[in-house]
Amino acid sequence: MQEKASKDLQHNTLTIERTTHHYTLGKLNADTKCIWLVCHGYGQTADRFIKNFETLPEGHFVIAPEAYNYFYWHSPGREPVASWMTRRHRKFEIQDYLAYLKKVCDAYQGVCPPQSRWIFFGFSQGCATITRFAFMANPDCKRLILWGGDFPRD
Fold first, then answer.
1. What is the DSSP letter of 44?
2. Cα gap 62→108, rounded to integer Å
3. Which end of the chain has the smaller Cβ count within 10 Å, N or C?
4. Tens-digit pLDDT string for the chain (154 aa)
5. What are phi and psi of 63, to 5 degrees?
6. Contact in structure between 83 and 44 (CB atoms under 8 Å)
7. What's the gap between Cα 62 and its chain centre?
């Protein structure tokens, strides 16, 4: 049975400001050689994902933004996890997270030592996220590392 669409139904958008969360690891100071921007995969959170970078030596500073689409993995009552985007309103999701990542980078760009270089790292769903950011937002990235994912088709 086909659902009858209302002739008055319209899709509208409204841009709002939103509180996002990101985590850092290491010290950002005059000795910082590398600044990592790392994007977690589907069903993860940044606070847990960033722990994978604890073995980096001194001179590395890690920034892990957290995707802001939260859901409960498998069953209610468990810890919420995050996703960078879904197919629904995809274009807007991409625009929003690109602006979010740019704002995160901008917050640190002014305090980075001149010799430091940016490394972008994406895992799983974070691969498409970080790749889009590297190519569309055109920040000062010296190395792009993708793990367990691929370039987005677009």
1. B
2. 11
3. N
4. 556 667 889 999 999 999 999 999 999 999 999 999 999 999 999 999 999 999 999 999 999 999 999 998 877 678 899 999 988 999 999 999 999 999 999 999 889 998 999 999 999 999 999 999 999 876 678 899 999 988 888 8
5. -120, 125
6. no
7. 13
Q: Under DSSP, is residue 9 helix (H, G, I), strand (E, B) or coil? A: coil
**Would you say 131 and 122 are in contact if contact means Cβ atoms under 8 Å apart?**
yes
**pTM exceeds 0.85 for this model:** yes
Half-sphere exposure of 57 (CA within 13 A, CB side): 2
Spatial distance between the Cα atoms of 145 and 39, rounded to a whole number of angstroms: 11
80: amino acid identity, one letter: P
Residue type, 124: S
Assigned token pair, 16:
């709002």
Taking each continuous run of H as one helix and of E as one strand, the counts in the chain are: 3, 7
d(CA 126, CA 52): 14
Among 20, 49, 68, residue whose Cα is nearest residue 123:
49
Chain-centroid distance of CA 67 in Å reads 6
Cα–Cα distance list, 134 to 2, 74, 88 (Å): 43, 32, 23
